[in-house]
Design brief:
CATH topology of the largest domain: Aspartate Aminotransferase, domain 2
Distance between the termini: 59 Å
Structural class: alpha/beta
Largest sheet: 7 strands, mixed
Helix content: 25-40%
Bound molecules: pyridoxal-5'-phosphate
Strand content: 5-15%
Radius of gyration: 21 Å
Length: 394
C-alpha cells in the first residue's frame, strides 16, 4: 500500500495531537479519569444568537446552493465593518476580504499561493504547528524566527542570519500567541511592517485570538500600521472568539494582490462555506461582542485560579492578557516531553510539550484552559501530589 502515498505525505511529521489522542484513549480504556488540557479549542458553546441564525437560514432552500467562490458579500461586508468599528481600519469588502473555511485552510493555501519550492518562510518558534506543516507541503524552507521569553516573545529579527533575512519571502506572526499567550502593542507590528518592507517580505499575521483578551487590553491589528496593506495580510477566525471551531469559518484581509492570488487558488479547491454559516458568522461580527467579553471573563478566572496554584507550587508561568492558554516553564531536571509524559502517566493530565510548537518550545509546556473550574481544582489537587518537582513544600 505504501507505494501509493506521495513523498510529501510520507515525510510529514506525525501530527502530535493525534498521537496524544491515542494515548488518552488507551488510558481511558484502563479506567483512568483523564483531564485533557491539551485541546486548543474553547469548551464553551456557540452563543444562541448565532446558532439561531443558522437554524433559520438552514431552512431556506435558496441557501442550499453554492456560495460565491470568495464568500458572500454579506459576510465580507461584516468583516469590513468589524475592522472599521474595532480597529478603525478601512477595507474594501470586494477586493481586500476573502471568506475562509477556517483559517487553518487559509494558512496552508496561502503558502501554496505564495511559495515556490525552495523559497524561505520565517515562522514563529515556538508557534502554531500549521505554519511549518504548510511550508513542508509547499516544498518551501521553513526557518525559525526565534521568540524568547526574555523579550516577551516578540520577534528577534537580529537573531536571523543576513542570508535568512535576504532569502525570506513570507513571514508569519501570531499575537495573542498560541502557544505562548504573549500579547503585543502596535509598536511590535510597526517594526514587523518595517522589517517586511525593508526585506521585501510578505507579512502574514494570524489574529486567531484577536478578541480573546482580558480586562481593558485590546490586541492591535497589523493593518493599523499606516500603509501595512502594501505588504501585509491578516487572518481572523470565529473559532476562538465565538466558540465556533467546528463551524469552519474565518477570513483573510489586507493586500489585494495576495487576496486575489489566494482566491484564485481556492476557487479550484473549495467553493467557500455553507451560506447559513456565513450569515450566522456575519451576525456575530456585527454584534457588540458582549458574549466574547463574557467568555473571556470565564477564561480569565480559570487562568487566575491555575496561575496562582502553579505559582504556589513554585512553577513558573507568565500571567497572560489573553488567549485560552497558560505557557508554563518545565521544572528543572525534565525536558518538555518528559514532563508532559510524567503528568500523563502519573496524574492522568494531558498538557502539550513546548517542543510540539518548535525547537524553542523546549523548557515549556502549554496548558489549555478549556475545562471547568471544578476540573481545574482536580488538576491542582493532583499536581500537589506530584513529586520530583524540585519544589520545597514548606
Ligand atoms: C486555532 C488556531 C487557528 C485555526 O483556526 P480555525 O479558523 O479554526 O482554522 C489558527 N491559528 C492559531 C494560532 C490557532 O490557535
Amino acid at each position: 500500500m505504501n507505494n501509493f502515498v506521495s513523498n510529501v505525505v510520507k515525510n510529514m511529521p506525525a501530527y502530535l495531537f493525534s498521537e496524544l489522542n491515542r494515548k488518552k484513549k488507551a488510558l481511558q480504556e484502563k479506567g483512568v479519569d483523564v483531564i485533557d488540557l491539551g485541546i486548543g479549542a474553547p469548551d464553551l458553546p456557540t452563543p444562541d444568537f448565532i446558532y439561531d441564525v443558522l437554524v433559520k437560514e438552514a431552512k431556506q432552500p435558496a441557501n442550499h446552493r453554492y456560495s460565491p467562490y470568495s464568500g458572500t458579500p454579506e459576510f465580507k461586508e461584516a468583516v469590513a465593518s468589524f475592522y472599521k468599528n474595532y480597529y478603525g481600519v478601512d477595507l474594501d469588502p470586494n477586493t481586500e476580504v476573502l471568506t475562509l473555511v477556517g483559517t487553518k485552510e487559509g494558512i496552508v493555501n496561502l503558502i501554496q499561493a505564495v511559495i515556490n519550492p525552495g523559497d524561505t518562510v520565517l515562522i514563529p518558534d515556538p508557534g502554531y504547528p500549521v505554519y511549518r506543516m504548510g511550508v513542508h507541503l509547499a516544498g518551501g524552507n521553513a526557518v525559525s524566527l526565534p521568540l524568547d521569553k526574555k523579550n516577551g516573545y516578540i520577534p528577534q529579527y537580529e537573531a536571523l542570519t543576513k542570508q535568512e533575512r535576504e532569502a525570506a519571502k513570507l513571514l508569519f506572526l501570531n499575537y495573542p500567541s498560541n502557544p505562548t499567550a504573549a500579547t503585543v502593542e502596535l509598536s511590535t507590528f510597526t517594526k514587523a511592517v518595517d522589517f517586511a518592507r525593508n526585506h521585501n517580505i510578505l507579512l502574514a499575521h494570524d489574529a486567531a485570538y484577536d478578541l480573546v483578551t482580558f480586562d481593558s487590553y485590546q490586541s492591535p491589528s497589523v493593518l493599523q500600521v499606516p500603509n501595512a496593506k502594501d505588504i501585509a495580510i491578516e487572518f481572523g477566525t470565529l473559532s476562538k472568539s465565538y466558540n465556533m471551531t467546528g463551524w469552519r469559518i474565518g477570513y483573510v484581509v489586507g493586500n489585494k494582490e495576495i487576496i486575489h492570488a489566494l482566491a484564485t487558488l481556492k476557487s479550484n479547491i473549495d467553493t467557500s462555506q455553507f451560506l447559513p454559516i456565513q450569515k450566522a458568522a456575519a451576525t456575530a461580527l456585527r454584534s457588540d461582542h458582549r458574549t466574547v467579553k463574557e467568555n473571556s471573563m470565564i477564561f480569565k478566572q480559570r487562568m487566575e485560579k491555575l496561575h496562582s496554584a502553579l505559582a504556589e507550587m513554585g512553577m513558573d508561568a507568565h500571567k497572560p492578557r489573553g488567549t485560552i492558554f497558560l505557557w508554563v516553564g518545565v521544572p528543572s531536571g525534565f525536558t518538555s516531553a518528559e514532563f508532559a509524559n510524567k503528568l500523563l502517566d502519573e496524574l492522568g493530565i494531558i498538557v502539550t510539550p513546548g517542543t510540539a510548537f518548535g525547537p524553542s518550545g523546549e523548557g515549556h509546556f502549554r496548558i489549555s484552559l478549556s475545562v471547568s473550574e471544578e476540573r481545574l481544582d482536580e488538576v491542582i489537587k493532583r499536581m500537589k501530589n506530584l513529586d520530583g518537582l524540585g519544589v520545597n513544600p514548606s
